[in-house]
# Entry
Amino acid sequence: MTTEPPVLELVDLTRHFAAGKGTVRAVDGVTLTVGRGEVLGLVGESGSGKSTVGRCAVRLDEPTSGTVRVNGTDVTRLSRRALRPLRREFHLVFQDPSSSLDPRMTVGRIVAEPLRLHQIARGEAARVRVAALLAQVGLRPEHIDRHPHELSGGQRQRVSLARALSVDPDLLVADEPTSALDVSVQASVLNLLADLQRDRGFGCLFITHDLAAVEFLADRIAVMYLGEIVELAPTAELFASPRHPYTQALLSAAPVPDPVAQRSRERIVLSGELPSPLAPPPGCRFHTRCPVAVDRCRTEVPVPRTLPGAPGAAGDRRVSCHLVTDDGAAPDAAAPGHARPVRPGSAPGGG
Ligand code: SF4
# Structure
């Protein structure tokens, strides 16, 4: 029996940039997979390195070291030429569609461009296909002859989605696809992305700082802090029982729909700013802001550990913190000195 490889596999991915006399360690040793038809959410503050991971995943940026595999093929060091036929398999949808859509081209040409480049369809066949794609993303037939500046932000993002999906990719990397949009249209674009993903079954690396969006869309979530993944877990488990103190703080700041629950929940306020990736703190990178840090955290780098899975849970649960025990009990960042109990069914780990 053969098992299909994940659509995306990043192994020990590192991306460093030279900056003056120093080195920006934007991404440091990121390992993750996106399964076929799976949505993996990648969350973290701005400056955590999550967009750089996305750009390296589709080879718009060159990893410093590590491996990028798409559908089992190592694409890390492929030349642009060798990469071209594989480009069909993976696409990136940007945060701001205005910067990624050519203002001189009509919507019809923009969406047809990948079909032409990959020699999938031309002429009337391409036009028919483009019309069907525009309908799928909720645009009207007359939009085909419009230019990007004649569309609203939400419509432009729909065009980006139609273009990305025109060649039926196995992997879509969506980098903050709704954050440049008005709040009123964010939900409709997210719903569209969810519908398209379900109908077409592509794998998706969904990069966002919006926790409500990632809870809605993702099957699993990876949490990034200063270039590293500190926790990775199935979505329901992460929200029910975050293990890493940073994840606990992040989730405690997210608004919940119920105003009573909102008032009674304990918000964990982190002190200080995100340190510079030019000089990440030694030991655990989170120790300068962690409410439960101990001496060891200042010198010893926590090794990512896979915790035993909850019954029936799919996917890894991985966490990098000295204080999380092997049975999954975790420090409670809201009440330093206490451990969070392992909740029945939810998670001393997720598989
Ligand atoms: Fe906090 Fe230490 Fe755990 Fe890092 S290793 S998250 S500093 S307790």
Summary: Residues 177 and 223 are 18 Å apart (CA to CA). Residues 344-351 have pLDDT under 50 and may be disordered. The longest strand covers residues 22-34.
